[in-house]
Amino acid sequence: MPIPPDPVGRSGLPAARLLEIYRLIALARALDERAWILNRSGRVHFVISAQGHEGAEAGLCAALTPGRDWLLPYYRSLAAVLAFGMTPREVMLAQFGRADDPGSGGRQMPAHYGGAAHRIYTSSSPVGTQALHAAGIALAAKLRCEPQVAVVTMGEGASNQGDVHEALNFAGIHRLPMVLVVENNGYAISVPAEKEVAVRDVAVRAAGYDMPGVIVEGTDVLGCYLAMRDAVARALAGDGPTLIEAKVTRLTGHSSDDQQSKYRTEADLAEGRGRDPLPAFRDELRAAGVLDASTEAAIAAEVRALVDDATDFAEAAAEPDPATLTCHVYAEPAEVSTPAMPATPATSTAPAPPSGRERN
Amino acid sequence: MAVRTFIEAIREGLRDEMRRDASVVVLGEDVGKKGGVFFATDGLWAEFGDDRVIDTPLTESMIAGVSIGAAANGLRPVAEIQFADFIFPAMNQIIEEAARIRYRSNGTFGCGITIRAPFGAGVHGALYHSQSVEAFFAHVPGLKVVIPSTPYDAKGLLRSSIRDPDPVIFLEHKKLYRSVRGEVPDGEYAVPLGRATVTREGSRVTLVAYGLMVHYALDAAARVAGEGIETEVVDLRTIRPLDTETVLASVRKTGKCLVVHEDNRFGGFGAEVGALVAEEAFDYLDGPVTRLAGPESPATPYASVLEDAFLLTPEKIAHAIRTLAAY
């Protein structure tokens, strides 16, 4: 059910901002393509791809405020984490599993994003769990009267998890400033949507939790922006959460260990390629007179240079020190930020324990 | 010093921490107006209101997961799981998320949450209101597991747990709630996590226990004392991190080690204590490291005769002490 793209003018965004969004999509695509090359040439172990999701993420995130809002990403959130301030070098440090990977120091598989400096919450592999973390972050924002929005992203496969429904229910009850973005690419690895979701549109589930459910097309970058702009306004006004379903396409296999031609027809794959957001947005900007040939070439050159730099930088970066294997299981003493603990009874003026004696 | 029941000490610990630190919030099922099914949170809603005492839907995974997120954004959540038997829907959030957040983020995120849960049998709770769940959590690096036995420790350890920057599973044996009283100071004090205590000194046998079993162990130790068997009782108080030095020092003195817990024996926490003693105090042992634990039924049955057959008693423990002492 394609939605006609918004005319560029309806977004109200200036040309420079539109070009930034285009650049972000192009950068995410180029980083992702480079990761596959590195994988196929044996230089990185694993890739899980964002190709096809970038337009929706770039449009949605254009309505957010990095530094204020929280992002709870999933493994296809490459464009979103870049929008929140992660750099190509940081992305590649994680891809190579290097010590300076800001999300995990090389402990997690690539694309398990996290970045405390950017309010990108740490993510895991069991899908959907982050929805509850988003609800908790939004609860804290509400109780602390902080004007923040917690934006959580996932695929339609994850949207079936119980945690997601528990999060939507809780967010609905408490009118939390949370936005759930479901990037519906039609497949949970190999299982098509009709065998994993009982309804055609995940967005209709929002009604069960008393919140709007909005459908946007992943090629309609500015439609995504407008949907998120409305959701953020609702959240900050205290009107509660929104569920946004972005209909996207997955241009690659699930991961570098998956061959999707085994379970998808050529016609299906061709249809998917026809919904690639990168050329769609490029054509839209060209038609609107925002993107001319020289600007396009300049952005392409810049993106190529950034990806080359990030690759070289990360590949040359230090690997984690095996001596750190068991660090950060618990807080190191320097990380304990709680108020100083009062002295134990044995050494203070407080009464001694009624029985027994302290050892150590 | 005031005398308090175990549940009163828990309640005071919560109240005092909420008064001390405005970021402390309580959430769980029926914790609000009702004050919890055991009244652990009684009076908190009246004092602190809806924002800080949050009645949740019947969704244990949500209770844990929302706590994790709230902690990331500046709150100190104290979650209540109504019965430990119901914690399993939250296992994914506790083990895959809370326990791993600091490690997987290379120390850039922490997860300072406390999850309280009543556990244990002996109150006719049957299969699903009686379970001991500590071994599941004690296995997981990144978690701390606290099991107090006295009102003093319950309050002091709860305060330390709430202030701790890492996730703490705080297990309260429900049979202690109203059956045990003890002196609890009104003023500021805390009991550190990870420290065992020797509750009774003895020379012949070391008895390692936690929670309700500490009281049964002391009862059993008194029974056999008249027979000339002096039993040293070690109350672990925190089972992860385990205070290995206190356990080993005691066993090196007595040469014999009996571990008692209500949880099933196979794969239970006693196996870890036993292995520790076998590896680190082998040269001091004068008898087999022995475990006395719950029988191999999945949980405690309802009918009183079945429940009685399941439960450990001071007499059963006294028998195990005599057997080991005579070895």
Q: How would you characterize this protein structure?
A:
The complex is a heterodimer of chains A (about 350) and B (about 325). Chain A is built from ten helices and eight strands. In chain A, helix 6 (about 160-175) links the parallel strand 2 (about 150-155) and strand 3. Chain A is globular, with a radius of gyration of 22 Å. Chain A is an alpha/beta fold. The model of chain B has no long low-confidence stretch (mean pLDDT about 95). Chain B is built from 13 helices and 14 strands. Chain B is globular. By secondary structure, chain B is an alpha/beta fold. In chain B, the strands form three sheets. In chain B, strands 3-2-4-5-7-6-12 form a seven-stranded mixed sheet, sandwiched between helices. Chain B has a five-stranded mixed sheet with strand order 9-11-10-13-14, sandwiched between helices. A two-stranded antiparallel sheet of chain B has the order 1-8. In chain B, helix 11 links the parallel strand 13 and strand 14. Chain B folds into two domains: about 1-185, 3-Layer(aba) Sandwich (Rossmann fold); about 195-325, 3-Layer(aba) Sandwich (Rossmann fold). At the A-B interface, helix 5, helix 6 and strand 8 of A face helix 3, helix 4, helix 5, helix 7 and strand 9 of B. Strand 8 of chain A pairs antiparallel with strand 9 of chain B, so a sheet runs across the interface.
**What distance separates the N and C termini of chain B?**
43 Å
Provide the CATH architecture of the largest domain in chain B: 3-Layer(aba) Sandwich
Strand content of chain A: 5-15%
Question: Helix-strand pattern of chain B, N to C?
Answer: EHEHEHEHHEHEHEHEEEHEEHEHEHH
Fraction in beta strands of chain B: 15-25%
How many structural units, i.e. domains of chain B?
A: 2
